[in-house]
Amino acid sequence: MTGYAVEIEDVAVRFRTKKRDVTALRDVTMRVDPGEFVAIVGPSGCGKSTLLKLSSGLLAPSSGSVRLHGESVSGPRKDIGYVFQKAALLEWRSARKNILLQAEMRGMPAREAKARVDELIEMTGLTGFEDAYPHELSGGMQQRVALCRALLHRPPVLLMDEPFGALDALTREQMNVELRRIWQETKTTVLLVTHSIAEAVYLADRVVMITARPGTVAGVIEVNLPKERDYGKTMSEPEFAKATRHIRDHLGAAAVAE
Amino acid sequence: MVTHSQSARTEPGKPPGPGPQAGVTERARPGLAQRLVGFVENAWRPIALLVVLFFAWWAVTAAELIEPYLVPSPGDTFDSIASRPDYFWQHTWATTYETLLGFVIAAAVGVFAAVIMVQSTTVEKTLYPLLLFAQVIPKIAIAPLFVVWLGFGIGPKIVVAVLMAFFPVVISMVTGLKSVDPEMLQLSATMGAKPGQTFWKIRFPASLPHLFAGLKVAATMAVTGAVVGEFVGADEGLGFVILQANGNLDTPVLFAGLLIMSLLGVLLFVLVEWLEHLVLPWHASRRADSSTTTM
Hints:
Chain B: It is a multi-pass membrane protein. Chain B: Residues 1-25 are annotated as: Disordered. The structure holds two protein chains of two kinds. Chain A contains eight helices and ten strands. By secondary structure, chain A is of the alpha/beta class. The chains are: A alpha/beta, B mainly alpha.
């Protein structure tokens, strides 16, 4: 039993299309500590999302191994929470009922589930919107519902696939602040895929950089910012500027080399 | 921390007002007066068109531009109904009964076939040509065969109605069942959902808007099917009334039969639409939202 929450070792993913074989990921190795917030940045199509699919067991690697809490991943895992770029809510269910879907599928006792939903609604600031239907909610609010649904069963690992990619800049910043706070409250391990360098540096303890074609790890940096991160203040920290520039240079250089 | 949770409650981009909750409930459940206004706004154009057409019919016949044995006047047409209410009631009921039964069976068979077909592509590929064949064969051409097989009773009428109505149901239901967001299904997998749970909680409800679109088409087809069935051999029903009136050159009765028949189709269509609003309030309200924004 290793101490890592997520371990991806020497993984490659190849897709076979009609015309040719496509290598989505190659030689990828990364380890995530329990409770750690790791962001994965890279250009579109570099296989960032594939990494989350691997970690959740929704996709099997062509070679290499994936372990969750030391356990080899084979098939979809139940001990994770997943948030996509699209909120993927059921339009015929209210916000509360959408969150409860997680409980219903897992056969969680109704009373326990209800208490947990109330707690999450409070924590994510959905109070007052519990009974609204998805089409009545803004993009940010829909994403909060999706986040509640992902957190309902207290998963030790939360996987987020560009969760704020479809939001406007202001809402996105606000959601970043919220997510940082929620992560500190829940102490869950987070793997966040994003193409926003600022988002990655503000939120994460470590940032993994992925380059495209074939997707591979270009480098990892530690973000040496304080635990408590005020959004405005963090943005003007020298460490923030240094980290974002480092990432930009790294990914940019890789793009030029290609 | 306090400022965090407060800022969470006010969503940027939402206008300040009497509170977002009030806005939500107002949009979700419009009052009776609002609904009435909405209905008039939507319905006045088609109603006006009907009135104009009706008036044109009346004007043409009143001015004796066309021989009355070719196109009877509205008055003569309604008189033909009023003079024999029992006769029309009996035959309208027969057709209504066949139509409803045919429609319900078509809906059930269609949904069942669609559910089977989406289970695997092999099943779908095997069944599809058969379905297509059943659809493209002219019903009026095979209807006599059903009379030979099933006699002059209600049987052949229902079979033809089902044959005509079930294809749109299958096609729309298959589309609906496949319309589910693949990410939703992946989420379902990470929730450890059993196939039955995924079907009943996600796939089936997601398919309902498509199903109702198909049912509306099927409703109008079922009427046609029932009447086609009556044409080839019946002693009851509006198809029988029309054939008889045609033979006697009794155009007022013929027109009356046609009118009732169309009314029957429209009523069934409206009934399905009403059911849709009842079953899918979430879908209907979203559609209403988009239609008011485009207007």
